[in-house]
Amino acid sequence: MMQRFIQNGYFLLFTFVTGLFYFCFYLVTLTLGLSLSFTVVGIPLLTHVLRTTSIFVQYERVQTKIYTDITTPPYEGKLRTGSSFWEQAKAELLDHRNWTAIAWLMLKFLIGLLCLLSIAILYITPTLFILVPLLAHFFDIYFIGIRVDTFSKSLIIMSAGFILAFVSSWLANGWVRLIGGYTRQMIKILNR
């Protein structure tokens, strides 16, 4: 149970990091590509950026399988034809699946922010509650306006920390399942 709780924490952290990466990557590259599209440089840049969507969707699929054990259908990638570069660029730019995948991947940033907040609440708070008997001698600790100045008060807060850790384990597991469902839904919509 403890190993699963820690693994869920890693998954929540990875969700934040990958969501931040997708948001920054697509925001910068799409802005740069669209602003340079009147030159010869912009269209190839946009084409190569749009080709990354299938790689990132596959990565999300693998990450979800490893950390949540949720099976998702394989992402059906596009077949590249042997046509000219400009025909391939036109096909990439007009493929709605690319733009839909970018929207889903950039939305992971908001989900990642919620994951970062949930890590603070579900992981750090119970740990601090459990460590109150050790920390009470060094810091002035107040809990709901009551000063924790005796060992018995610190033990009560520590026991509340253990209860909170148990509840946090259950909540983190549910939150990870929801994010895994998000990835499954993303791939299902992209495969249409």
Structure described in brief:
By secondary structure, the chain is mostly helical.
Major beta sheet, specifics? 2 strands, antiparallel
Number of H- or I-type helical stretches = 6
Beta strands, count: 2
- Report the structural category: mainly alpha
Taking all Cα atoms into account, the compactness measure Rg is 23 Å
Number of domains: 1
Helix proportion range: over 70%
Mean pLDDT score, rounded? Answer: 89
Strand content: under 5%
Order of secondary-structure elements: HHHHHEEH
Q: What global shape is seen?
A: elongated
Give the termini distance in whole angstroms: 37 Å
Low-confidence stretches: none
How are the strands of the biggest sheet laid out side by side? 1-2
